[in-house]
Amino acid sequence: MLKGQINIKEGYLTIIHEASKLLSKKNTLKESLKEILKILYSYWDAPISFVALYDNDASKIKIVESFGLTRKETLRGIFKKGEGVVGSIFKNEIPAIISDIGDNPRYLNRTKLLKRFSDDMVFIGVPIKVGGEKFGVLGVYKEKNKNFSNDDAVKMLTTLATLIGLTKKMYERMEEERRFWQQEKQILLNSLNKNSHIMDDIIGISDEITNIKKTIIRIADANSTVFITGESGTGKTLIARAIHNLSTRKGKPFATINCAAIPENLLESELFGYEKGAFTGALAMKKGKFELADKGTLFLDEIGDMPLSLQAKLLNVIQDREITRLGGEDTIPIDVRIIAATNKDIEKIIKLGRFREDLYYRLNVLPIYVKPLRQRKDDIPILIDFFLKKINKKHNRNIRITNNALKALVNYEWPGNVRELENTIERLVVLNDIKIDEKDLPDYINNQEMKDINIRDISYKDVPYAIESIEKQQIQSALKETGYVRSKAARLLGFTIRQLDYRIKKYDIKIKKF
Fold first, then answer.
1. What's the sign of the alpha-carbon dihedral 235, 239, 240, 245?
2. Model confidence pLDDT, tens digit, residues 96-134
3. Torsion-angle region of residue 399: left (phi > 0), alpha (psi -120 to 50) or beta?
């Protein structure tokens, strides 16, 4: 539509319509403002216009975009709140029309346009605001001899200014979200890079292991006690160490003591230390594990075997955060995070009176249960591959495993869990020359009744192919669970974005778009 071919009312509606269409496009804020000012020029014969926005840091209103000048000219202007026409419009949130630009003392000529316009122009300015939030001023210069109504012009420009305010607000929110997600991404990448190294020894892709890794990350920085339960050989010590290494205490000591391996008369002195002369043979003062682990973490393994007499003392230490050495009278404050673990059915031994219920509640603030290996079959091929590489390197071998042997190992119940699996793989690597076949497995493994296992019956020659099949399935499940948001799927799987993208390309996984 050409200039002058529409009446005034229709022209105003066209301006608002064109501006609305423009703002639906994905432009930058600067581009959007420039295009809106072009619309005023094209549809309203406004030779020069500008947008001034409030700068919170400088506490001033600055012209950020203008239109109508030559390429070599730049419209500049900085105003304090209440200063001049622009400052007053912003402060008072009231539109202004200045017909006597040359003589009006409120017009400060910060834009340096006075000589050009003399008395031929009228300035119209309206506040840019949305609700109770104000952003700046929309200023327009209009020739006096053009036929237009001041009231209608102010209404149109006010509507346009509201659209500009909404645009500004939208871009602010987008920028805020961009910064937030950028920070989240960086935190996540740092966390994943750190976690992938620290949790290298926690091997597995099952939901159980994935959830344990996520739990470790969530609770690492808390100072609350952690209680890890699970059968022997499931990796409770690895989990405890990972929690410590991911926490703010990582640079401090990680002390560990097996409550089942030390006689009762020695366990107390190992935990709390003793003074010189406390008993026969105590020739010098000795610090216990609590003091040695100060500012760090104390891992109490197999705490279900701790004698009742020591349980009461441990409960007091947890409550009071102080200890007393054997043979001593002074209390010593300690800052130690306690992680406890047991392979016992803790509720059963509480009922039998062998474990204090109040101590259990003090320890069981952040519980972690590690399922036995027989209940997470998906992890077995991954563990086999890990141990094969590790043990082959240790013995300078290059032993692989056949499909039939792999299936038999996955089918086995593994009462000794991961520890038994590692020892079995080492024995098989040492005793074989080229490959591990089904006939090379111990009889107690081969004689197990073959059960329906969770690994699909695919044709693969050795462990890596099995791993790839399971890994692809896990990635597809994670993507589906997270609505195909790659960053969330990567976090769920314990990958970096780059690692996940590599695998998506490798396995030719299709990403659904919504």
1. positive
2. 988 877 677 677 666 666 555 556 788 899 999 988 888
3. beta
pLDDT digits (tens, 9 = 90+) for 179-234: 766 665 555 555 545 555 567 778 887 888 888 988 998 899 888 999 999 999 99
What count of other Cβ atoms lies within 10 Å of the Cβ of residue 159?
A: 17
Residue of 294, 288, 274 whose CA lies nearest to 338: 294
Q: What is the DSSP letter of 254?
A: E
Which domains are seen in the chain, by residue range? 8-175 (3.30.450.40), 238-368 (3.40.50.300), 375-506 (1.10.8.60)
**386, two tokens:** 């890990």
Instruction: Encode 233-260: b = buried (16+ Cβ within 10 Å), e = exposed.
Output: bbbbbbbbbbbbbbbebeebbbbbbbbe
Burial class (CB in 10 A: 0-12, 13-18, 19+), 214: middle
Give dist(CA 379, CA 388) in Å, integer: 14
Listed ranges 165-169, 203-207, 226-230, 284-288; the one with the highest mean pLDDT = 226-230
- Name the band, by pLDDT with cuts 50, 70 and 90, for residue 483: confident
Q: What pTM does this model have? A: 0.54
